[in-house]
Write a structure and sequence with these properties.
Blueprint: H1 11-35, H2 39-67
Length: 80
């Protein structure tokens, strides 16, 4: 059985995309937390934002392990 095609995506490109997704999700959750009037809902969004930040930090460490000093390459945000 052959591996799934990667469609030309390298491991580092995939990491860059994942890091961008975590940044965007964190920004979105922070914005929603600011808009939330209910304290419990606000806290939940803050927790989700923190989870995304931690995940991004983990992925950035993976990048450094794989790429050394090569700067992280992330696609531009797709959020408005």
């Amino acid at each position: 059985m052959s591996p799934e095609p990667t469609h030309g995506l390298t491991a580092l490109e995939a990491l860059g995309i994942a890091i961008r997704a975590d940044i965007d999700a964190c920004d979105l959750y922070n914005e929603l937390a600011e808009r939330a009037e209910d304290r419990q809902i606000r806290r939940r969004f803050e927790t989700l934002a923190d989870d995304e930040r931690q995940q991004r930090e983990h992925l950035e460490m993976q990048w450094k392990d794989m790429a050394g000093t090569v700067p992280i390459q992330r696609p531009p945000s797709r959020l408005p």
